[in-house]
Amino acid sequence: PLSSPTVVLLDFAKAHGELGWLTHPYGKGWDQLQNVLNDSLIYMYSVCNVLEGEQENWLRTNWIYRGVAQRIFIELQFTVRDCNSFPTAGGGSCKETFNLYYAESDVDYGTNFQKRQFRKIDTIAPDEITVQEDFAARNVKLNLEVRSVGPLQRKGFYLAFQDLGACVALLSVRVYYKRCPAVVRGMARFPETVAGADSQTLAEVRGSCVAEAVAEQAPALHCNADGEWLVPIGECLCRAGFQSLGDSCQACPPGTFKAAVSSGGCQPCPPHTLPSPAAAAAVCPCEDGFFRAPEDPPEDPCTRPPSPPQAVTAVGLGAAVQLRWAPPADPGGREDVTYSITCEQCWPESGECRPCDGGVRFSQAPRGLTGTGVTVTELEPHVNYTFTVEAQNGVSPYSQQRSVASATISVNQTEPPRVTSVSLDGRTATSLVLSWTVPLRQQSRVWKYEVTYSKKVDENSYSVLRCEGTSVTLPKLSPGTAYVVRVQALTTDGHGAFSPQHEFETLPEGEE
């Protein structure tokens, strides 16, 4: 805790005898004297009626304005003579203590003194008593005692000293209160605060952040009755662009930055940024051609779009194309590179080109690919295809530059039409009515269909029927018999692939 300044309300020693305190009874008991102590002239109030039997002598201060004080401290310097110095002292009425009282009031009562208004603070006893030999040698034992009282509520107060038959000299009476000093702690300013009235409680004081500092929760300190700051709560932190220096916030020098409210210091601008042109930068701007994605922290270097994909190749596999490429030589300083594929088809005879239609199929969605290859199917014959692979990363949207590489392939081989499914549309004991499908784009290339069928029990003996449509009736079959059927498309270039083998059964004899 910091040392506490005190505010003095009364200092008898500094008044040099000009206070004129009230004595009661008037003219008896306490008296103001001058003396020399350590070669200095001092004033004191003393009483020493030890030889006169029972005593009750009061000394009251002037009215003391309280101001903002809540608890006051009373510091006394005094001497007490040893009762044994007075062998015939009043039949045992000699005392070696005196009593300290106080009374609060809103007005100054002047010379009107009423004992009943005063409340006792304590009995004041010396640590050291001045014995006869010391007194004779002018070697008095000076005592120092401090008492406190509070809470005070009226505008002012009096102190009073009650002597019941002692030999006492009051050399100093200081009355003061304590306050916690104005302080900067944890980047927050706390105002000068009068110490609390109760020694058990702490006064919570809210602080205000120093310039360029902020706090989530208002910082607080607690001022105790002794004028000490205790129990700090919360703190202020320098805002973005400022770092702490002692208990103040200092702007980040040019070439450095601080991105957020924190206790950390300024950092050098990261790679591929321009040095912050002015002080107090929260972020360093990117170099030309470099960018920052919204989720990129300001501490990270600025990055750029990747270079184009490398070694793009397209290899034909019948009516399919295997498209392959290698990652960019320069990923732009990022790890989030993805690929997108666009496709263009051109007809050599007409020279017409246009984006590929929806009939082209990719083995994976052609956007946001993380791998380095796809298979493209359902391509048309005798058409030139150009596949363009674009490499992108998190900052590509912020750049005009596109990172693309292409490969062109001509699809000459055609996959023969294939019957994909055969259905049973009707049956009797001696016939089966069948139909089938062929992919739409291949239908125009089919010349005829060839249906091969045999009894399941004897697949070596089979019959063949040719037809032009996609349905047929197989006649002259045996009742209640399972037949195995396959359908093949015929083109002017030759036979297509067989359909999968299907099994159908005629009705038993007599059923229709």
Automatic annotation (TrEMBL):
Q: Name one GO biological process term.
A: angiogenesis
Domain of life, per UniProt, equals Eukaryota
Q: What are the transmembrane regions?
A: none
Q: What class of enzyme is it?
A: transferase
Pfam families to which the protein is assigned, alphabetical: Ephrin_CRD (PF25599), Ephrin_lbd (PF01404), fn3 (PF00041)
| GO CC, alphabetical | dendrite; plasma membrane
Subcellular location field: Cell membrane
- Name the chemical reaction catalysed here: L-tyrosyl-[protein] + ATP = O-phospho-L-tyrosyl-[protein] + ADP + H(+)
Principal location: membrane
What's in the keyword line of the UniProt record?
Answer: Angiogenesis, ATP-binding, Cell adhesion, Cell membrane, Glycoprotein, Kinase, Membrane, Nucleotide-binding, Receptor, Repeat, Signal, Transferase, Transmembrane, Transmembrane helix, Tyrosine-protein kinase, Ubl conjugation
Enzyme Commission number, as recorded: 2.7.10.1
UniProt domain Eph LBD: residue ranges: 6-185
Q: What CDD domains does the entry give?
A: EphR_LBD_A2, FN3
* SMART domains tied to this protein: EPH_lbd, Ephrin_rec_like, FN3
One GO MF term on file is: ATP binding
Q: How does it sit in the membrane?
A: Single-pass type I membrane protein
Record domain Fibronectin type-III: where: 305-412, 413-509
Database matches in PANTHER family: EPH RECEPTOR A5, RECEPTOR PROTEIN-TYROSINE KINASE
- What is the official name of this protein in its record? receptor protein-tyrosine kinase
Q: Could you tell me the gene encoding this protein?
A: Epha2_0
